[in-house]
Design goal:
The chain has 6 helices and 2 strands; from the N terminus they run αααββααα. The protein is mainly α and 145 residues long. A two-stranded antiparallel ribbon has the order 1-2. A hairpin with a 5-residue loop joins strand 1 and strand 2. The radius of gyration is 18 Å and the shape is globular. The two termini are 35 Å apart. The model has no long low-confidence stretch (mean pLDDT 92).
Length: 145
């Protein structure tokens, strides 16, 4: 499994907005500058996140984006699944039920199922709030060094 730039940038966008939305909406132009990401690409990602209800958008001079909920209400998993789709390691595990005709005799299906479960548990245990706390911890550690 490899997370695309869309998934990585969506996570960075959400973190940046969470870090800077105390005073209202966060400009995508400012996010693009801070994160060194193309504004056009961020606009596409922000639109996707907004349509899914993860971000709220505001128009006008003071417009931009802000979180629709608190940082602790967003898991990394929900952001990555929105941008990446199903994170199944093999195609037969995508969707609700395994449609593979070899599923019952496949010697590797349990391995892939286990990997899929571990990945989902891992990405769902971390929230934006957790990542923000880690960012603060690392910044404090750098300042102490």
């Amino acid at each position: 499994m490899k997370i695309s730039t869309k998934g990585r940038y969506a996570l960075r966008l959400m973190m940046d907005v969470a870090n800077h939305d105390r005073d209202g909406y966060v400009s995508l132009k400012d996010v693009a500058c801070r994160q060194e990401i193309s504004l056009k690409y961020l606009e596409q990602i922000a639109g996707m996140l907004s349509r899914a209800g993860l971000l709220q958008s505001g128009r006008g001079a003071q417009g931009g984006y802000r979180l629709a909920r608190k940082p602790e209400d967003y898991t990394v998993g929900c952001i990555l699944r929105l941008t990446e789709g199903d994170l199944a390691p093999v195609s037969c595990l995508e969707g609700v039920s395994n449609q593979c005709e070899r599923c019952m005799e496949c010697p590797t299906v349990d391995f892939w199922t286990g990997l899929y479960q571990v990945v989902n548990q891992y990405i769902d245990q971390y929230t934006l709030a957790d990542l923000l706390a880690e960012q603060v911890r690392k910044q404090n550690h750098r300042q102490e060094s």
